[in-house]
Amino acid sequence: MTTATKPASGAAGPTTAVRPSLKVPASLGVLSLVALVFFGFLGPAKTAEMKVSEQGDAIALPALQIPGQAGGIVLAILLLAMAAYSIYLWNQGERSPKWLPIAFAVVFVFALLVWIVAGAREPSISLAGLIAGSVTLAVPLVFGSLSGVLCERVGVVNIAIEGQLLGGAFTAALVATVTHNAYVGLLAAAAAGALVSMVLAVFSIKYLVNQIIVGVVLNVLVSGLTGFLFGTVMAPDKELFNTPARLDILPIPFLSDIPIIGPILFEQSVAGYLMYVAVAVVWVGLFKTRWGLRVRAVGEHPQAADTLGINVNATRFWNVTLGGAIAGIGGAIFTLVTIDSFTKEISGGRGFIALAALIFGRWNPIGAFLASLLFGFAYNLQSILGIIGTPVPSQFMAMLPYLVTIFAVAGLVGRSRPPAASGIPYVKG
Amino acid sequence: MGVVKLELKGISKAFGSFYANQDIDLVVESGQIHCLLGENGAGKSTLMNVLYGLYEPTAGQVVVDGQPRTFRGPGDAMAAGIGMVHQHFMLVPVFTVAENVALGAEPAGPGGILNLEKTRRKIREISERYGFDVDPDALVEDLPVGVQQRVEIIKALVRNAKVLILDEPTAVLTPQETDELLDIMRQLKASGTSIVFISHKLREVKAVSDVITVIRRGKVVGDAPPTASPTELASMMVGRPVSLSLDKAAAQPGERTFVVRDLTVRAANGTNVVDGISFDIARGEILAVAGVQGNGQTELTEAILGVQDHVTGSVTLEGKELLGLPVKDVLRSGVGFVPEDRSHDGLVGPFSVAENLVLDLYDRAPFAKGIGMSPAKVAENAAAKVREFDIRTPSVGSAAGTLSGGNQQKVVMARELSGPLRLFIASQPTRGVDVGSIEFLHRRIVAERDAGTPVMIVSTELDEVAELADRIAVLYKGKLVGIVPAGTPRDTLGLMMAGVGPEGGSDDN
Question: What is the spatial distance between Cα A422 and Cα A299, in angstroms, rounded to a whole number?
Fold first, then answer.
C-alpha cells in the first residue's frame, strides 16, 4: 500500500488543546484599571456614609463610613487582585471559576457606589433601603422572566411578557377597585395574563404563526386596549374604577427586624412572598419532577416526546397559559403594591427587561431571578442617586438599567444554549 | 405478554391525493426478523409510522395476536408491545441516558418528584444482558451514534417491546457497528423479540432476515427468501431489471493537477473539524472519500469550494491557489460541485427546472444579454439537459422542488457538468436516489473521469465507494486515516472508518 499516507494517531484522535477565551480575564483587567484610576486616584475626598439598619430596627448597626479616595483605592486593589488571579489561571490554560466574575461584579458595583455617593451633595444613602427597594422593583421582573422560562422551556418564545404584565396590571386595578378586595384583583390579574398567553398559544401552536410576530402584535394590542379603556372608563371616574384595594405588607415578626435580609425576605406583600415560592416551585418542577422532564423534552426535541406518547401541543398550550398567569401576577404588583392606581403603559418596558433577564439567567428560574434582581438594583440605584444629587446627569442615570441589560446580555452571557426547539412550531410527521 | 404475532391488513395511508401506502398486507410472525425492503420514498417509513400510531391509517387494520387494534398514538402502540427505533434518533441530546429512557413513563414519587433509580437499574440489566456497555448517567449528546442507537433499543426494551421496528438503522453506522447491530438483532430474536427491519441495503437484508417483503411505490410487490440474489431483489425494488455492477475501464491517471496540502478547518468550538489533510487527485482519476457521516466530509468539500471560514492550508488546481477566492471565482476556475444536501444547497426549490439549470451561469453569455436574461436560451438549454440527463419533469417550467429526489439530483448534476471542467466534486451523489437513477448518475461520473477530469466523490455508502473509486481516502474525526487503492477489503475500510490505520501502512506512525 504505497499510497497510504500517515494514519491518524490513535483511535480517539487527541483533540487539540483549546485555550480558554481571553474575554473574562481581559475585561476584568480593564475594569479593575478603570476602577483604580477613577474610583481611586480621581476619587472624591468626601466620606460616603452607608446606613445598614433602618430607624426602629430591633438590631441597630452603626453606619459604614467609607472615605471616598482611600476606600476607592482599597477596593480597586481588591479588584486588581481578582483580575490578576483570572489572568494567572488563563495563562495556566484554565478557565476562571464561575464565582470570580460574580464576586468581581459585586465589589465593582460597591466601589462604584462609594465613588458616586462620596461625590454627591448629600454623601449618605441607606444600603438597606437600596437593597430592599431593588427587590421590590425586581418582583414584576421575576414574575415576567419566570413566565418566559416556562414558555421557552416548552418551545414557545414569549415576547408578549410586556403585554401580560400590562394586562395583569390593568385587570388587577379594575377588579380590586370594584370588588374592594386586592386578592380578588390578584387572581383576576393572573386570569388576564393567562388570557393574553392563550391567544399567543393558539396562534403560535395551532395556526403556526411566527411566535415573535404574534408576541409583538399582542404587546401592541394590550397596550392599545388598556390605554383605550383607561381613557374611556378609568380616567373619567377614578373613584369608581381606579382606586384599587392594596396588598398589605405582611412583616413576619422578629425575622423582619434582621438588618438588610429582614426587609428583603420577611417584609413583603403576599405577592412578594409568592415570588420566592414561585421561583422555588418552578425550579423544582422543571428539574426534579416528571412534569418538568416532559416539559423540557417538548422544548428540546418535540418529536421524541411525541413518539413516547407525550402530547406536545397540549403540553405547550398549558405551559404557555401558566406562564401568562404568572406574568399577570407580576403585572398586579404595579397597581396593587408599587403604585396605587393604573396609568397608561404602567409596565414601561419591564416585560422586555424580563425577557433579557430570562436570557441572562440562561433559561433557568434561579438564574432569571438573580438577573432580575440585578436589573431591579439598576432601576433603584438610578432613582436613589437622583435623590441624593450626584454630579452625573439624571438622563444618564435613567439609561442605567438598559445599559446594564445590554452589557449583561451581550457580554456576560457568553454562549448559553436556549432550548433547541424554542420558537419552532411542532407539526406531526 | 408472551410472543406476539403482528398483522397489517389492507393498510392505506393517503396524504391528500397521494397514496404513500396502498392496501398493504403484512404478517410478522413471532420471533422472526422480517425485512421491509424498498427504495427511499417507497413508503416503508410511512407504513411503520402507521403501525407505531404516529399516523392514522386512511384504511386498514392493525391486528396484534388476533385482536384488531386502533392506535391513537405511540402510547397505544407501546402498550401493545410495539417499539420503534427511528431513523433519526428520538433522543433529547441534553438529557442523560436514564432521563431519555424514562421519558413518558417516568418512575416518580409523591408530588411527581422523579426517581430514576429503577430506570438506571433496568438500563444496567439490559446493558449487561446484550453487552451494550451503556452508562445510564451519560449525556446522550456525548455518546457516539452507535451507542445512541443502543439507547433507543433499550428505550423500547424497557417498555417491554415484543415487536421492535428498526427504521434504516444502519444508515449512520460504520460497517463494524453495523455487524454488531446485526448480532444484537440475532440475540433479540433468540430471546423472543420479533423485529421489523427496514432497509434498502441488500447485503444487510440478506445477512439477517428470515423473510423479506419488498415494497415499491406504496404497494407490496411480493415476498422473497433471504437466499434470493441481490439482482433479483434489486429488480423487485425497482420494477425492472437492473444491473448492480458498473462496467468501467481502468483509470488512466494523468498529471496530478488537484493538490490539497495541510487543509485545516477550525470549528466555532475551537476544534479542528478538518485536521491537516493532504492529498492529490490526478486527471482521469476518481478519489472517493469514505467515512461515517459527520467526520469532516462536509467541511472538507465546503472548504475547497470556499464556503467555510477559518480554513488554513492550501488547495491548488493546476497550480492556482483556490483558498481565499470567492466562491464564484472558484466555480469559474472550472470546478463542478454537487453539494450533499441538494434540496437545501443545490437547488432553489420554488424556481423552475430551467432556472435551476443556469443558477451559476445566468450572468454570462449565452444566458445573459446586458443586464437582462435571454429566456429563449435558458429554455433551449433546459430542453437539451432534460433530454441528455433523462430528467423526468412535467415541463422545464415546473418547480424543481416538486421533482423526485433522483430527478432533482439529475438537475444538479446536469448543471454542474455543464461546462468544461478542471475538477468535479460530488458529495453523496446518489443519496436518496432510486436505484435506476443511481446507475445513470454513476455512469455520468465515470464518463467525466474518462474525459480527463480529476473527480472527488464523497460518500458514506461503502457500496458506492467501492463501485466508483480508483483510490479511497478514509476520514475519521477530521483526519485522513489513509488513502488505499480500490479493491481494498470492506473489513479494512471499516476499521479505517473507525480510526484504525490500514494494515502495513501504519508502521511509520
Answer: 6
